[in-house]
Amino acid sequence: MLDRIREGSQSLWVKIFLVLIALTFALAGIGGYIANQPEPTVALVNGEEITQAEFDRAVENERSRQQQQLGDFYEQLARDPRYTQNLRARVVNDLVNQKLLEQAAKAQGLRASAAQVKAAIRDISSFKVAGQFDNDLYQTTLRSLGYTPDGFAALIRRDLVTQQLVQGLVDSEFVLPSEVDATQRLLGQLRSGRFAQINTADYLDQVEVTDAAVESWYNENIERFAVPEQVKVAYVLVDAGTVAEQVVVTDEEVQAYYEGNESRYSQAPQYRFSHILIEPGDDPAAAEAEAQALLEELESGADFATLAEEHSDDIFSGEQGGDLDWIEPGTMDADFEEAAFALDEVGNVTGVVESSFGYHIIKLTDKRPGSVTPLAEVRDEIVANLREERVKQRYYELQQDVTELTFEIPDTFAPVTEELGIAVGETDWFSRETAPAVMDSPAVLAEVFSNELIDERLNSELIEISDTESVVVRVVDHKSATTRQLSEVRDQVVENVRREQAQELALQAADEIMAQIHAGEEVSSVEFTELDEVSRQATDYPRAVVQTLFDMAAPAEGTVNVDSVTTGNGNVAVVVLTGVAEGTVDPARTTQLQEQLQNSYMQQVYQAVIEALRADAEIEIMLGSNDETS
User: Fold this and answer.
1) Which residues contact 4 (CB under 8 A, 6 or more apart)?
2) Which residues form a coiled coil (predicted)?
3) What whole-number distance in Å separates Cα of residue 296 and Cα of residue 287?
4) Fewer CB within 10 Å of terminal CB in the chain, N or C?
């Protein structure tokens, strides 16, 4: 299977499927592999759970990905609650799709061998140094993410099985050489003809606008004159950014924090172990006996590294003589650690140790003392931590103070300004569609346009706009939705009627010209512009003209085809097609075009599979009401 993937590695979709392994970090999380306690559920897919831990990890990683991709613009986006809602909706749908593919693969009986898992892990770029797999980096990365080697291998095995299903489906798509050539000839087609523009403005003087026409047009387009509901709002904004500007961290506070968090800035003694793992399989007793036999060989003088390489079931450490790199307490299985850290001399070996992964023989191969990082090296980090804590605390306190003051005296913000020094803002008139930035969030708009705030003119509750901003609002004035009367917009309506009727006259003139062309008569009422071998991408002519030229069927020999179209500026164009020159096949573009067509077909198949799986599945999304999924 992996050979087929490598052979097609230049395909965009194959690359996307290979990235599934890397996306595991973003979409899977680690809750299902290292924790046993029940997790809150965000979705059920055919009875299988997607946990809150998986969802939160996926959301956080998607945020990080977009932050890297968008840079400073991300911060502006993240302030909009609608952005967060859309992101969460996309993530939960991705997780549902992934779960459906996993279930379909399992139902098909697909499997991935240990060799395939090993090869896939070795191919992950995050574990490579100078293009080569680095076991130390692999072990360190897994520990930092909270994975055990076996847990991570199980995760990769799952993704490989899913990948087999998807790859097997999309690999059935192919593109014939004749399709590629035909597409290239079609895309490179050149068309010739001519066009003439009929100016709508030339017919304005011929139009007589009646009162009946004005009234009729007004009634038919009355929605154009709707004036939406509008409000004026007073508000108090609680901004963590403003709080941050006022926070000062002293040297004494830094010193106290450093001394109070000594363990954070000290390195505990580290130990390096090697092990031999015998997995229990279907016969735990036989596995334990095998481990005991290996222990006896070691006691008889056998080389630990050699036995690990020959017998250990650990995927990677066996190749390194059983080496597990430097390990700190709390990173391995509890039974493993209890036995391993009981070794006090380098070279000592445990007996056979049973853990949840099987039977181990563990050897202490090295150890190094702990160390303490000087304050000077971590001062900036401590200042940042203290500042962040103070800002969060002060922001929370300020929210409570504002909530209390605006509730106790609900018809004014004066106490907030007097006691907290926060300025009161006031908006101009706005509707739901024209809300200023501070009001432009679903939660705020729901409040300021609620009957309660409009009728009572009292302060709202504190509304969180984002993680760093919250606001209290009060409606100070209100205008109901209305429709502008015909008398107010008569001039505008008359102008629209005049232009529409002028355009109708222009279209009639175009029909007459087209009839003359079909009859083979000479047309002298308009001036034509020649179109000589125009491509689809031509920009020298109105886009509507070029589009119409390529929409028409190729004319029979000795004839022309003709059509009319309204251009972007409201004029009418008569377009005549006289000839079609087939595009040529460029061998240099064939491979690229073939890949594009195949990728397009593969994408269609993939989307069809997802839609079919979703149509037959029982899916229950259990996010909040503000999270919408498609």
Assistant:
1) 167, 171
2) none
3) 14
4) C
Paired strand residues for 195: 529, 575
Report d(CA 466, CA 88) in Å as an integer. 15
DSSP character at residue 506:
H
Question: With contact defined as beta carbons under 8 Å apart, do 476 and 159 qualify?
Answer: no
Q: Which residue has the higher pLDDT, 619 or 15?
A: 619
Q: Which residues pair with 327 in a beta bridge?
A: 271
Distance separating the N- and C-terminal Cα atoms of the chain: 33
Say yes or no: do domains 229-249+379-480 and 270-369 share a fold: yes
CATH of segment(s) 270-369: 3.10.50.40
Tokens of 504: 């109708």
Global pTM value: 0.50
264-276 average pLDDT score:
87
* Helices 211-220 + 486-518 axis angle, to 10: 100
> How sure is the predictor about 18, in pLDDT bands with cuts at 50, 70 and 90?
very low
Q: pLDDT by residue (tens digit) across 82-121?
A: 777 788 889 999 999 989 998 988 888 888 888 888 888 8
CATH class for the domain made up of 229-249+379-480: alpha beta
32 has a pLDDT exceeding 60: no
Confirm if 164 and 112 have CB atoms less than 8 A apart.
Answer: yes
Q: Do the beta carbons of residue 565 and residue 198 sit within 8 Å?
A: no
The per-residue pLDDT for range 321-346, each reduced to its tens digit, is 999 888 877 778 889 999 999 998 99
The pLDDT score that the predictor gives to residue 497 is 94
DSSP 3-state helix, strand, coil percentages of the chain (rounded to 5)?
Answer: 55, 20, 30
Give me the helices (H) in 199-247, please: 211-220, 240-246
Length of the chain: 630
| Lowest-confidence segment of 140-154, 187-201, 246-260 by average pLDDT | 140-154
Measured in whole angstroms, the distance separating CA 600 from the mean position of its chain's CA atoms is 21
Helix (DSSP H) and strand (DSSP E) numbers for the chain: 24, 21
**Structure tokens, 38:** 């029940």
| 121/1 Cα distance (integer angstroms) | 15
Which of these CATH numbers, 3.60.140.10, 3.40.50.1110, 1.10.4030.10, 3.40.50.10350, describes 41-172?
1.10.4030.10
Residue 567 has pLDDT above 60, yes or no: yes
Domain ranges of the chain: 1-36, 41-172, 190-210+488-581, 229-249+379-480, 270-369
Which token pair is 381? 């980090």
- Find how far residue 397's CA is from the centre of its chain: 34
Q: How confident is the model at residue 76 (pLDDT cuts 50, 70, 90)?
A: low
Output DSSP code: residue 466.
S
Distance, CA of 317 to CA of 278 (rounded, Å): 12
Q: pLDDT at residue 20 above 80?
A: no
